[in-house]
Design a protein that fits this description.
The chain is an alpha/beta fold. About 40% of the residues lie in helices and about 20% in strands.
Amino acid sequence: MKLLSNPVLSLIFRLFLVIAATPVIAEESAFVPTGFQLYYGSDPTLLNQMQRQMRKGQVAVIELRGLDQKQISTLIESAHQAGTKVIAYLSVGELGQIEKANFELFLKQHKSPRALADMILSKNETFQSWHMDVSEKAWRDFLYQRIKQIYGQNVDGLFLDTVDTSDLYINHREWPIPRRAQSVSAMIDLIREIKALSPKKFILQNRGLNLIGKSVFVGDATGIFIPGLELMKSHPHNPDGLLWETAYAHTGDWITGKEREMIQIQKNGFTTVFTLGYTDTNVDRGQFFQKSRAAGFIPAWGSSTTKLHLELTQETNAD
């Protein structure tokens, strides 16, 4: 093809040819959550069933520490083929039996001036774990190290469990109110810092409903308000999802107000609300699914919070 004689027009024409020849790269479509399943175990039969149930838009929570490398790779490969995001369990507010020795070794290696006993608030007898003060730098550093290890497995994000340890900070009478506020703020900062570590990862917060509004009341009969996550509004480092575990199992003004907040959070679309109900509560399974879907939440069902390592959660009302 003969080029134009005018130098300016010739340059414009050349630029046009370059632009026209440049391949158009389609932007990755935004992930829209449409389903949820959770399994903490390693039974091959259940893992295979979990893979078969994966579909586009689903968020699947797994516990990496019970799986070998082949199991992890197979799960992730199946998930990505289906359009599912696999996210890994991480307890941010409690130290479990599995990690206790690892954390004590971490403290020793880093010559921490603080002993483990100084960071513990109380013990969770049900799960034989310890409630941690997330304002402790050594604990946060340990979590960041664990996150680095988890992300090395090519998972799509994290399931942040035990965020509700912040409720203990609010009511910890041995601390003056400013000291309580320090730890509550530290939990909010920790959630956002984890999201900021890798912004494209999907972060799902479990519980911690006291933190989801514009402000958090810290105190007893009297107290102070501090800034909350304010999930109704956009924030680059807020969690992508919020799980309301044991949804609809409790009554009262507080939980009614939080339910209204979560409905508005879901409507505003910045954080997706998931619900998880259990057979061993006073909640009717049919009503649980009906209420969840009427509110726009994404529901799942299990038999008990203590059996999540023994069975898959279910996404339908059918037994």
